[in-house]
Amino acid sequence: MKPLRLAVVGHTNTGKTSLLRTLTRDPEFGEVADSPSTTRHVEAAALLLEGKAVIELFDTPGLEDAVALHEYIDSLAPPSERLDGPARIERFLQTREATLRFEQEAKVLRQLAASDAGLYVVDARDPVLEKHRDELALLASCARPLLPVLNFVSAAGHRVPEWRDALARLGLHAIVEFDTVAPAVDGEQRLYEKLGTLLDSAAPMLTALIADHARHRILRREAAGRIVADMLIDCAALRVPSPPEAQAVALHEEALRNLVRQREQRCMLELLALYGFRQSDLAGADLPAWNARLEHDLFNPEALKDMGIEVGKGVAAGAAAGAALDLATGGLSLGTGTLVGAAVGGLWQTAGRFGERFMGRLKGARELTVDDAVLRLLALRQRWLIGALEARGHAAQQPLALDTAQDEELRKGTLPTELRDARGHPEWSSMAKSHQDTPRRRAAVVALAQALG
What we know:
Layout: E1 4-10, H1 16-24, E2 43-49, E3 52-59, H2 66-75, H3 85-93, H4 103-113, E4 117-123, H5 130-140, E5 146-151, H6 160-169, E6 176-177, H7 187-198, H8 203-237, E7 240-242, H9 246-274, E8 282-283, E9 290-294, H10 301-306, H11 313-316, E10 337-341, H12 351-362, E11 366-368, H13 372-390, E12 400-401, H14 408-412, H15 417-423, H16 439-452
Parallel strand pairs: 1-3, 1-4, 4-5, 5-6, 8-12, 9-10
Antiparallel strand pairs: 2-3, 7-11
Helix pairs in contact: 3-4, 7-8, 8-9, 8-13, 8-15, 8-16, 9-13, 15-16
């Protein structure tokens, strides 16, 4: 089956290239700018289904002077002549003016005539003017189905009702609202469904494309969850040993902070790549200023259980006497971080594997770990980022700015079991020299991804 050919047409600066970027999930396609007439030539892109191109999209220049062109085409016809629309357009394309004054319009009409249908992109913030009616009259003369796409419908002061009424008066009743900057979750589905009503023969393929996009959306979300869970396990299991002297502790606190910052940064970049965005789409990716405090981790409940020691509820909750000795403290609020040394760590797991670390403890050495509050913060930030990327169009120009995520369970509830287990397994952190990607660690990542939703 030959690919469905769609010409993306409309007035200048209405978001035609933006629509293709969002449909293809390619932020590099074409050029997007606020200035008019950015696209000067026809550019093509393809949508794939099972590795094969099923839709070919053609980005066309903006229609700049439809009123004058409409008058010029009328002037080419003798009073007694009765040519249909395609014949009138073809005669215009043979004139010298099609390569001079109306070169841009000729490119648009030529591409639409060679396509199966057209997507007429409208900036819903604009008033309906005479030039728009002449544009639609010219496009209708190509005798191809036309689906108006109302863009920027999320903007305040849009004129969607006005446009719907004007399009209905011109006989265009199949209309779709699709904001290329902030598309609705089902935006693509509604666009392809409307297109299927205009092109019956392509309806089965469009239905299959809708199902394929829905499947990939689920797979992306699952992959995103695993990326975040892997980062959280890394941070929960991370340990940085430090001598007891205050100056040395301060240096190692900073080392820990930097490791966590870099790990979160890597997580964010992986999420951006997964959703097809660029690093420039994210602003404020660096973690804010961190505070730190240091605590003993020798009596970690998980470490005690690994040694076969029974613990009560109080101990399991981290209430064992002498489990924490604060040397420096800092508060936590969303948008800031707190690092806690050796809070519910995993020092004493086995004498063979951790004997050297245990002896270091007896000599006063410390191990710094990431506090629960920081893990909560990291999880909140990544969940927010995933939601923001899923709701972002690939034509959006403003960078994302991380804000406060609302999730009471992550903020105040019990940490997921997998993160508490990671405290007792420093080898689970990929930032450790002793890193081991064990089956148990991989299972913890999968379970944590599911727990985080």
